[in-house]
């Protein structure tokens, strides 16, 4: 194991730590309403499933980013996930928040949507070394699991963190939309400041729509 291999592995680990914050937020939001006996299972299986898919994505990441509207559609999907997770704060019947299978599915789908940037960065740092890619992702698993479990404990004590987490996902969705090859440059052409404004507006939209939808559904029961 030469020095360059170790340095590249450390670089991949750092990338995973920095870019996995959103993933930890999704896991914490998706699992916060589960019974205690199911939380750890959802976190572990959801994270493992997401990482397996991310390994596969890494090998086709550069090609995927050239597909028009892929990031745009991913951004819209992440927006819907963020609103659904926040809506669960006022509605305990949301499947993704109250069942083990639903939480695992939400974690995997959201991670898949948000992983494009991550896998491109990892693929670049690995210089095509498959062992480096797999090692980096495997070692990052406990970091993501620990981070999400810590967030869940914080959310229990400070519910405002739930709103902040959902808003962060909305902001991330806005950034994904602007990275789309077909949509991003069109929006930038309309106004060069939109790339800063739209993510903030979508973060606000998630909070407003998520909370209003949750309350509306609660009032109908």
TrEMBL record:
Pfam families recorded: TerC
Topology class, membrane: Multi-pass membrane protein
CC terms in the record's Gene Ontology section: membrane
Subcellular location as annotated: Membrane
Domain of life: Bacteria
InterPro entries per the UniProt record, alphabetical: Integral_membrane_TerC, Integral_membrane_YjbE
Keyword flag Transmembrane: yes
Membrane-spanning segments: 6-30, 42-63, 69-86, 128-146, 158-174, 194-212
The entry's keywords: Membrane, Transmembrane, Transmembrane helix
Primary location: membrane
Similarity remark: Belongs to the TerC family.
Protein name according to UniProt: YjbE family integral membrane protein
Organism annotation: Priestia aryabhattai
Classification lineage: Bacteria, Bacillati, Bacillota, Bacilli, Bacillales
């Amino acid at each position: 194991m030469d020095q360059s291999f170790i340095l590249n592995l450390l670089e991949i680990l750092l990338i995973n730590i920095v870019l996995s914050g959103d993933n930890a937020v999704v896991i914490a939001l998706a699992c916060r309403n589960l019974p205690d006996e199911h939380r750890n299972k959802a976190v572990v299986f959801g994270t493992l499933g997401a990482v397996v898919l991310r390994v596969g994505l890494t090998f086709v990441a550069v090609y995927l980013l050239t597909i028009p509207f892929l990031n745009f559609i991913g951004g819209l999907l992440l927006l819907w996930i963020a609103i659904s997770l926040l809506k669960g704060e006022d509605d305990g019947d949301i499947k993704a928040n109250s069942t083990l299978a639903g939480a695992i599915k939400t974690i995997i789908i959201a991670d898949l949507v948000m992983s494009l940037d991550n896998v491109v960065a990892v693929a670049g740092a690995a210089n095509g070394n498959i062992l480096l890619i797999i090692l980096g992702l495997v070692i990052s698993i406990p970091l993501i699991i620990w981070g999400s479990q810590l967030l869940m404990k914080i959310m229990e004590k400070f519910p405002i963190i739930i709103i902040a987490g959902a808003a962060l996902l909305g902001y991330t969705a806005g950034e994904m939309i602007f990275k789309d090859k077909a949509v991003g440059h069109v929006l930038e052409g309309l106004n060069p400041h939109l790339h800063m404004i739209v993510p903030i507006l979508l973060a606000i939209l998630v909070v407003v729509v998520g909370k209003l939808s949750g309350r509306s559904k609660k009032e109908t029961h």
